[in-house]
Specification:
With 234 residues, the protein is α+β, with helices and mostly antiparallel strands. The protein has 8 helices and 7 strands, in the order E-H-H-H-H-H-E-H-E-H-H-E-E-E-E. A hairpin with a 2-residue loop joins strand 6 and strand 7. The longest helix has 18 residues.
């Protein structure tokens, strides 16, 4: 008997998933730029300058240098800028998307897992900058409903699944993510690598992210390159 194909696929249906976004990216961009401008004309110039190199805006206008287009984004829904920002900026890459123009929407099913995941990445940054202590780092919480039919399910203990969950390497996971996106799959459900018992989702198609709501802010404090505490901001 031949082995079962990997990965296994199945439906996901989760309401109120949690995603934490650094505070500076979670607010309206024009409001942030207005703090730098003294007049309306200066604000207009700043907005245009920002837009000229903004991956999300380039994609909306079909001008993205790597081919990211309107079909990769969502329009006419609440917090579309927040959703599109996740998919139009891949940064240095993450577990299921490589470095490049296309990102993904990563979220967790509970707040504790969400915090452990973002804290890990913040600690990596702190080590790179040799900053052992940092207090009251703001993260804004967003809730979203994720419903789809074709997610890769990596909680099966399969050897290839475990390779994608390597705590020190994204190579296998990124390879899977590239394959799934090319096939038009919805994303990945996987056990949290940073919190035992937690479950995370990596959504690869923007329209799957629905009913997004902005909630409160959490303040994370780090000491000796570890998460010391987190509190909901008053």
């Amino acid at each position: 008997m031949s082995p079962a194909p990997w990965p296994a696929f199945g439906p996901v249906a989760y309401d109120d998933t949690r995603r934490l976004i650094p505070g500076r990216w979670a607010e309206d961009a024009e409001s942030a730029l207005s703090d730098l401008a003294d007049t309306d004309d200066e604000l207009t110039d700043l907005i245009r300058l920002s837009g000229a190199t903004n991956s999300r805006l380039q994609a909306q206008e079909e001008q993205h240098p790597a081919g990211l287009g309107r079909t990769d984004l969502v329009f006419g829904v609440a917090f579309s800028k927040i959703i599109n920002g996740a998919f139009s900026y891949g940064g240095q890459g993450a577990r299921f998307h490589p470095r490049g123009p296309k990102g993904a929407w990563y979220c967790a099913l509970d707040i504790d897992t969400c915090i452990e995941e973002v804290a890990h990445h913040r600690i990596v940054h702190l080590r790179e900058t040799d900053t052992a202590h940092e207090a009251d780092v703001p993260y804004r919480l967003f809730l979203a409903d994720i419903h789809a039919q074709d997610f890769a399910l990596l909680d099966d203990g399969h050897e290839s699944s475990l390779e994608c969950l390597d705590p020190d390497s994204y190579v296998a996971g990124q390879g899977l993510g590239v394959r799934l996106r090319a096939e038009g799959r919805g994303g990945v459900r996987y056990p949290s690598v940073r919190r035992r018992g937690g479950t995370c989702l990596a959504v690869l198609q923007a329209p799957i992210v629905s009913n997004v709501r902005r909630e409160g802010t959490y303040l994370l404090t780090f000491k000796d390159f570890s998460l010391e505490s987190f509190v909901a901001a008053p």
